[in-house]
Design a protein that fits this description.
With 307 residues, the protein is an alpha/beta fold. The chain has helices spanning 2-28, 43-58, 72-81, 91-98, 108-120, 142-148, 153-162, 173-177, 182-189, 206-211, 226-229, 253-258, 261-266, 275-286, 292-302; strands at residues 35-40, 63-69, 86-90, 124-126, 136-141, 169-171, 198-200, 217-221, 232-234, 247-252. The longest helix has 27 residues, at 2-28. InterPro entries: ABC_Gly_betaine_transp_sub-bd.
Length: 307
């Protein structure tokens, strides 16, 4: 009986120690529910998503990498449905496309505060925004733009109106229907191109198509590294149509309440991401053909955000 009693006590002590170690380990590693990180499918979004995944993993969180979803509407729906816990969104996209406002905002702080306050009522928390401004742009080959004397979108409007049918423009499907997309540009600047003059194509081949002289004008993103690499030029938005597009992490309120540490982790990242930095990171992926997660890890280590 004595031996049996000692054996039971020994087993009980071992179980207590195992459970204690498990609890301490869980507390130290931020384990628990997995954090689902999403992103859109283009290079900059993949980089922002991978930066987030790696930073959270380094902090000890379990992360489900759901980056690479096509389309702003789909990622927003994923956030609403709980398929994502967080992703990076642009203030201009949220204000005009997702929250369906008509008037663009050109001031960064004002745009951020308005989307932050509105989305809080929807259960989404906007953390500190980055100064990078990935606004839409219309691009031409530098040599061609100089040849035609086009420096601004007003110049482009004038040329198209005076030379109908001469120029073709490449845009993606989303830009063809967004209020801050091509229909809005044409209305704001007072020109019109026919359907035959507008080529709808995937964003991934847009820059290459323009460089290879298959189209004359193309939509793009201001922080894309291919603009300089392909000798393209952004036309000045001289009538201030495009709103600011500062990127910020958007987190489901319930996820942030469960894991408040997320805020401190991501708000150390945002201040370091300006337009110049983001353009360089995009360049590494698009021109040097490196993987987004490799570039993201290298940048995080160079800034001291992860070991």
């Amino acid at each position: 009986m004595i031996k049996k009693s000692k054996f039971i006590k020994t087993i009980a002590l071992v179980l207590v120690l195992v459970l204690s170690i498990g609890v301490l380990s869980a507390c130290g590693s931020n384990s628990g529910d997995t954090i689902k990180v999403g992103s859109k499918e283009f290079t900059e979004q993949l980089l922002l998503g991978k930066i987030t995944v790696l930073a959270l993993k380094d902090a000890g969180f379990k992360v489900d990498d759901k980056t690479g979803v096509a389309g702003s509407d789909k990622v927003r729906l994923a956030l609403e449905n709980g398929d994502f816990d967080l992703y990076w969104e642009y203030t201009g996209t949220a204000w005009l496309s997702q929250l369906q406002n008509d008037e663009p905002i050109t001031d960064s702080q004002e745009a951020y505060e308005k989307v932050r306050d509105t989305d809080e009522e929807n259960g989404f928390i906007w953390l500190q925004y980055a100064t990078l401004n990935n606004t839409y742009t219309l691009m031409m080959r530098k040599e061609h733009a100089e040849e035609l004397g086009i420096k601004t979108i007003s110049d482009l409007s004038k040329y198209i109106s005076e030379n109908p049918g001469e120029l073709t423009t490449a845009i993606d499907h989303e830009f063809s229907v967004r209020p801050d997309g091509y229909p809005g540009v044409q209305a704001h600047y007072g020109f019109n191109q026919s359907d035959d003059e507008i080529k709808i194509m995937d964003l991934g081949i847009m820059y290459k198509t323009l460089r290879e002289n298959q189209v004359d004008v193309a939509m793009g993103f201001a922080t894309d590294g291919r603009i300089a690499a392909f000798d393209l030029v952004n036309l000045e938005d001289d009538k201030y149509f495009f709103p600011v597009y500062n990127a910020a992490p958007v987190v489901r309120k319930d996820a942030l309440e469960q894991h408040p540490e997320i805020k401190d982790i991501l708000e150390k990242i945002s201040p370091l991401l300006d337009s110049e930095t983001m353009t360089k990171l995009n360049y590494e992926v698009d021109i040097n053909e490196r993987e987004p997660d490799e570039v993201a890890e290298e940048w995080l280590k160079s800034t001291g955000l992860i070991d």
